[in-house]
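Dear support,

Our group has been running a series of protein-ligand predictions, and this particular one with magnesium ion is the one our PI (initials K.S.) wants archived with full inputs and outputs. We had some confusion internally about which version of the output was final, so please treat the block below as the authoritative record. The input we submitted was:
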Amino acid sequence: MLACDLDRFKAVNDSFGHAAGDALLRVVADRMQGVIRPYDTVARLGGDEFAIVLTYLDAPCWAIRIAEQLIAVVSEPIDLDGQVVEVGVSIGLTLATEQNATADELFKRADIALYEAKAAGRNTYREFEIDAGVRIALRGQLGLDMKEAIRRGEFQLAYQPVVDAATGAVVSFEALMRWHHPTQGKISPGTFIPLAEETGLIVPLGVWALQEACREAIHWPAHIHVAVNVSAVQLRREGLEASVLSALASSGLPATRLKLEVTESVMMQDSDTVLACLHRLRSLGVLIALDDFGTGYSSLSYLRRFPFDKIKIDQAFVRDIADPDAAAIVRAVVGIGERLGMGIVAEGIETVEQLDLVRREGCTLVQGFLFSPPIPSHEARKYMAAAQGRAA
Ligand code: C2E
Ligand code: MG
Ligand code: MG
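Confirmed final output from the archive:
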């Protein structure tokens, strides 16, 4: 949504009269129409105010490009019956998202941005940003805290069991990062992982997680694997392979007991270097799992491009498994996984009903609160001992 307001229109109206003003508005409207695309809409709201709705944007930057073109064409001299005048246009721009989808809200935001454009000297555009300053300041502080936190050892790993759906035996543990902030308390990975990725701190954090998880897993029974999540940012930078090798070497853990979980954002980078790195890790014996399958694009071509050892079906499908459509998708993914030799893990099992249903669709490995939430390392060791006792 673009809120537009002409600059210096009043001067034209006052000096040359209303007829000239009307003619000028028509010229401006024509020029605007010449810039927007057939499926966009421009409307005159009254006076010298226009609103433009842009639809089907391939990328948000297109809105900016259109705003720039609008500014360029409107500020060209205008001939009004021999009188050449010049006006400008200020534009406030906002993008509709799921959170600000109502027309009123959108227009309010575009209007706030328009005021900023006017304040910035007119004949320019501004994009609406909610409390941008506040947000940046907060993230900046948290980012700084995070640097300190790595040094001070405020991060911990929690471990969540992955269980054989038929026998209930523990097959592996997934290491999940936890941050206990000195003043803000527990901060969820959903908050600090994206921030760590943005700031690059995910690289030292990831190195630490690998070291820590391997050091812990060496105390477990030899058939139990440890899974560590790896961010796309870590794979994009050099050094992941070296970190993995060093974590294995310093802990003494065999490569075959380590599993790395990557999300499809890794595959979306479509980079040969990333794939080559995954292949090299795999040839060392490290297992590679595709995490959160079913969210995002879930392109089947990712499954062809790399021989994953495991596919983890996202909790979203498990949550809806009572719905026949969701169940059909799970069944299909299980079928594909079987054909390609990739094991399937169903994530986020919370109830016995969900367990029964994913089992019925052919999932052999399961993980979720029904078995255990992520727990501290000493509890994970107890959990293993108890599970072994049960099995015996
Ligand atoms: P993920 O790898 O898909 O991990 C599974 C998430 O689902 C975990 O959230 C886990 O606590 C949660 N979960 C497990 N079972 C259930 C269940 O039955 N019900 C519900 N509602 N949730 C369940 P968590 O620990 O908050 O981690 C969130 C995400 O943060 C992870 O998703 C992973 O993508 C990322 N993450 C966590 N630790 C690391 C790490 O060390 N490195 C990187 N790169 N990412 C990490
Ligand atoms: Mg994971
Ligand atoms: Mg997952």
